[in-house]
Specification:
Order of helices and strands of chain A: HHHHHHHHEEH
Largest interface: A-B, 59 and 47 residues
Mean pLDDT of chain A: 68
Strand content of chain B: under 5%
Distance between the termini of chain A: 80 Å
Largest sheet of chain A: 2 strands, antiparallel
Shape of chain B: elongated
Number of helices of chain A: 9
Number of strands of chain B: 0
Radius of gyration of chain A: 35 Å
Structural class of chain A: mainly alpha
Number of helices of chain B: 3
Low-confidence stretches of chain A: 200-204
Shape of chain A: flat
Low-confidence stretches of chain B: none
Order of helices and strands of chain B: HHH
Helix content of chain B: over 70%
Oligomer: heterodimer
């Protein structure tokens, strides 16, 4: 992260906080308008709908978080979470783009704006339907899922097991290569009664072998 | 009753938060939490459409997804433990080699 001057970070934090406050004020105003439209049955065509209400609530939430960070004098908190870097800026832009595109897509379908029928909701919430679907129609996939979850459990245990190497060190494991293998071939342990030569190992004393 | 668009907006917000965490976080544990947010966004969609259409298939699929999310979390945490033992860190930026 690049080192930006402290006054610049403070200035950016204050600008973001003021912007969040203004956005929250506007959003909450829109939220109150939409609520009045639903409760007092005024002309709903001239007032915003559910999207504006949710955006208003989200903006209010963001404003509360930013206000808590700045009004509380938590400069470290503000610096940590409002520091603008290339990665954070790109992530914010991508996230907002995803949310805006999905919100526009949701708002474009008029059937989704109305509340579901009471009968349909009650039918889906019936526990008998859920149990029948789970243990009758989808019984075999449910069993397969259970077997797969058991395999997953064993796999997780195998992955998370301690790596055992010689000694108490278990944090690293060295993969054998040609160098280590050749070292193992040349370094032989001395066994009493054996003669280690340059090329071969014999368990018979050469002197006794010559006399025999 | 809650309109379907409200539930979809909530799931979109959760999805956006999950993607934000996936893009920004460097700790593998936080990346796992972000993946859980994305899975929960899908679950909200399943339940919302099941509630709107009057069918219980979406609820069952949400149940399946919850089980798969638990399995994914178990395997992810196991990989995380292995990775920490290997490199003494859970920073995903350090894992640039697929070897042990």
């Amino acid at each position: 992260m690049s080192q930006t001057p402290p006054f610049l970070r403070t200035f950016v934090s204050l600008v973001v906080a003021v912007g969040a406050f203004l956005f929250a004020t506007n959003g909450l105003h829109v939220y109150s308008m939409a609520k009045d439209a639903t409760t007092h049955a005024i002309d709903a065509s001239e007032t915003p709908g559910g999207l504006a209400m949710i955006l208003g609530l989200l903006a209010g939430l963001v404003a509360l978080v930013v206000a808590a960070g700045i009004a509380g004098g938590l400069y470290a908190f503000t610096y940590r979470y409002l520091a603008i870097t290339t990665t954070s800026l790109l992530a914010t832009v991508v996230t907002l783009a995803i949310f805006i595109v999905m919100a526009i897509g949701i708002q474009a379908v008029p059937q989704w704006q109305s509340a579901p029928a009471e009968a349909a909701s009650a039918q889906s919430n019936n526990i008998d339907n859920v149990v029948n679907t789970l243990f009758d129609t989808l019984a075999i996939p449910f069993e397969i899922l259970g077997i797969l979850l058991t395999a997953v459990m064993f796999g997780a245990l195998v992955i998370a097991r301690p790596i055992t190497v010689t000694g108490n060190e278990e944090t690293s494991l060295v993969h054998p290569n040609v160098g280590t293998l050749s070292t193992e071939n040349t370094e032989r342990r001395e066994i009493p009664g054996t003669v280690v030569s340059a090329n071969s190992v014999s368990s018979v004393d050469p002197a006794s072998e010559g006399s025999a | 009753m809650i309109p379907l668009a409200w539930s979809l907006m909530l799931s979109s917000a959760l999805l956006a938060l999950g993607v934000f965490g996936l893009l920004l976080q460097r700790s593998a544990l936080r990346v796992l939490v972000s993946v859980e947010l994305v899975l929960n966004a899908a679950n909200i969609n399943f339940v919302a459409f099941a509630n709107a259409n009057g069918k219980s298939d979406g609820l069952v699929f949400a149940f399946f997804t919850i089980a798969l999310a638990a399995a994914e979390a178990a395997v992810g945490l196991a990989i995380l433990i292995h990775y920490y033992r290997h490199g003494r860190s859970v920073d995903v930026n350090r894992s640039t080699l697929l070897r042990w």
